[in-house]
Write a structure and sequence with these properties.
Length: 394
């Protein structure tokens, strides 16, 4: 039976790109893994999480394993609300929803806000899974360029003015990763953050702020746009994936009350109740703040390390971004097709992500690649960069 005839047009369009991740190197293969945005194995507080799970099961018996039973499950929301996670976000007239990673928060955002004909604005390049998620709800996109200070907000302002003047459709929302952007590692500077918020007010659009890497910024550094949102323009998404463990699937959104109510309506009780309880126990009884500081400092060292390796091994024609933190660095290799380069790299045991996956139009980005410095060890990073560089000489 031709099952696909049951799908509506948007799903056909979404599936044109193939199943998610089908092209990607296997995350746990023997390759030097410079492609996955995974936390380093040592950055996951495994002992503490095991202690939390054990204490919880001893104390509450079956409750953490029930749908809603564990008293600790509720603590998670309280802790997230109180601290929100030390990023200067105050709930005031806003509400929070806890989700299965920020991925679910983004999916619910798209589900609640988007109609097929709505225009979504993206940074170019942008987080590839965000593209996949938005594609499930609309096929109408516009991309805006970035430079070393993040999204080019002046370019955006000019385009918005042009659109308004000529009665061309304006975006309903812009999706941005302003802090340690995926894939470029760049952070949007403060004046652009405020300027973007002003534009949202002026041209009546929403900002979906993905702060998945925000907790890797030191305190007071790079405040989220949401922290100065007085007009209910920002839907803020965050996560414990990069600072505790992605497998817990703990993320959240902070947004105006009505928005969160609509998201809850669709989420139902699809929560990972056990994970909520374990995470709450961990946050309450273990030293999360020291852990985050440690993790931050470890990733900063690895960032320095990958920059040094790039400077040492890459030809002078190759350039890369200058992230101040996060997991990624974005490399420009003029005249090289990075899709072809990946095949050769895999054959000698190193992986990265070709740039085209981070663009709406797959014809874009072929001269770029994303390197992740979060998962591989320093020695592997050095070897991996050396291997990739050796392929450029032939
Ligand atoms: N947003 C960005 C920019 C990311 O890089 C990631 C992780 N790759 C996510 C969201 C998803 O994170 P989570 O595990 O919280 O779903």
């Amino acid at each position: 039976m031709n099952f696909e005839r049951f799908f509506p047009p948007l799903i056909h369009k979404a599936l044109e790109v193939g199943p998610p991740g089908q092209w990607a190197p296997k995350p746990f293969s023997q390759n030097i893994n410079l492609h996955a945005g995974y936390p380093h194995p040592n950055a996951i507080p495994i002992e503490d999480l095991m202690k939390a799970a054990l204490n919880l099961s001893n104390k509450e018996r079956d409750l953490p394993f029930q749908y809603e039973g564990s008293p600790s499950k509720k603590n998670l929301k309280i802790l997230l609300k109180e601290n929100s996670y030390i990023r200067g976000i105050h709930l005031d007239n806003q509400k929070m929803i806890v989700t299965a990673g920020s991925t679910q928060a983004l999916d619910l955002t798209a589900k609640v806000l988007l109609h097929e004909s709505d225009l979504v604005a993206l940074e170019s390049p942008t987080y590839m899974e965000a593209i996949e998620i938005f594609r499930n709800y609309t096929s109408n996109f516009i991309s805006y360029p970035m430079d070393q200070k993040g999204l080019d907000v002046d370019f955006l302002a000019e385009d918005l003015a042009y659109r308004q003047k000529n009665r061309i459709q304006l975006p309903k929302l812009i999706y941005t990763v302003p802090t340690f952007h995926n894939p470029t590692g760049i952070s949007m500077d403060l004046s652009r953050r405020t300027q973007l918020l002003k534009l949202a007010e002026e041209y009546d659009f929403l900002i979906v702020e993905d702060d998945a890497y925000g907790q890797l910024a030191s305190k007071g550094e790079l405040p989220p746009i949401k922290s100065f949102d007085k007009f209910d323009r920002v839907i803020y998404l965050s996560s414990m994936s990069k600072v505790i463990a992605p497998g817990l699937r703990i993320g959240w959104a902070v947004a105006p009350k009505k928005m969160v109510e609509a998201m809850s309506h669709f989420k139902k009780d699809a929560d990972h109740a056990f994970s909520w309880a374990v995470t709450a126990y961990y946050l309450k009884h273990c030293d999360f703040s020291t852990h985050v500081q440690q993790v931050r400092s470890d990733y900063s060292k690895r960032l320095l390390f990958i920059k040094e390796a790039l400077s040492k091994y890459m030809p002078t024609t190759i350039h890369w971004t200058e992230p101040s933190g996060g997991f990624f660095i974005w490399v420009h290799l003029p005249t090289i097709d990075t899709d072809k380069l990946l095949k050769k790299a895999l054959a000698i045991g190193v992986s990265f992500i070709p740039g085209k996956h981070f663009f709406i139009d797959p014809c874009d980005g072929s001269e770029f690649l994303r390197l992740s410095f979060s998962y591989a060890d320093e020695e592997q990073i050095s070897k991996g960069i050396m291997f990739i560089a050796s392929l450029l000489e032939v």
